[in-house]
Amino acid sequence: MPDLSAFPITKRWPAKYPDRLQLYSLPTPNGVKVSIMLEEIGLPYEVHLVDFGKDDQKTPEFLSLNPNGKIPAILDPDGPGGKPLPLFESGAILQYLADKTGKLLPADPARRYQTIQWLHFQMGGIGPMFGQVGFFHKFAGKEYEDKRPLERYVAESRRLLDVMETRLAGRQWTMDDEYTIADISMLGWVRNLIGFYGARDLVAFDTLKQVPAWLERGLARPAVQRGLDIPKRP
């Protein structure tokens, strides 16, 4: 049985199943990337809720695993060389899990790097820009009198959706007919933008054709449906 006692995070979130991958998360667009991935690949894992309402992400135990204080993070008892591996940043975790299991990342070197480029497109563009729309449209930023920040992030989010629209033309998924970590990285963010953030009309989502169809296909996947609700919110 693996011994995870050297990792301070296990003091606050004890592992009932230390032989399984430990997931520390919350069902946000970034958090569900990893829960969806784990459900898709069927790797046994144990999930721990990081409650933002209690500032769990700011505790010394969590910061010992992710000094950036963000979710998701994992602790894999069976990392490279059979040694435990702590890892944070959702994109890095997706790539790690794909490499570990040989799933959802093409083996062909060219297609592998093309998939990774779209993963970085999400990490560097879709996540930050859609998140800013959420802040300025739904949360505290909506009280700002100056609407130029909102207008900027709405315009940039629409531009990114147009990039996706062009890419998906004639394709089922980002990488043609192959569902990959690139799709997993984007599904929660697009869903959140038009749903929880309430920005469907702002970005004129219904004028798109390819992205809504892609989103519908993705959300219909049983693993995605399960992963979107893991871990349960308090």
TrEMBL record:
Gene3D superfamilies: 1.20.1050.10, Glutaredoxin. Residues 108-234 form the GST C-terminal domain. Residues 18-105 form the GST N-terminal domain. It comes from the Bacteria. Keywords: Transferase. InterPro entries: Glutathione-S-Trfase_C-like (IPR010987), Glutathione-S-Trfase_C_sf (IPR036282), Glutathione_S-Trfase (IPR040079), Glutathione_S-Trfase_N (IPR004045), GST_C (IPR004046), Thioredoxin-like_sf (IPR036249). One of its GO terms (molecular function) is transferase activity. CDD domains: GST_C_Ure2p_like, GST_N_Ure2p_like. SUPFAM superfamilies: GST C-terminal domain-like (SSF47616), Thioredoxin-like (SSF52833). Belongs to the GST superfamily. This is Glutathione S-transferase. It comes from Bradyrhizobium archetypum.
